[in-house]
Amino acid sequence: MDHPLIDLINQKIREAEEAGAFDNLEGAGKPLPREVDPENALLNRLVKESGAVPEFVSLSRELARLRAELRETGDRTKRRIIMKEMSLMEAKIEVARKAHR
Description:
This protein has 101 residues and is mostly helical. Helices cover 64% and strands 0% of the residues.
């Protein structure tokens, strides 16, 4: 079954072709890049283009922030709390890395 707007879609594509919208596109005439996961290629591209990162990367950034905070803190109680958070964060990173593989 065709999409209900297929005629309109085809018309817009024809108009774009006639206007030269597809001329001189980057990668024209070259094969498409191989996809490791073809079934999820579109989803993976959208996630990548939106700036999303694997969980272990965002956790690593948080760990770096905690390390910087620790360097700037002289209060022993606060340092102890930060070090506890860092330890927990390192464990979370390890779990996230294993899950990502």
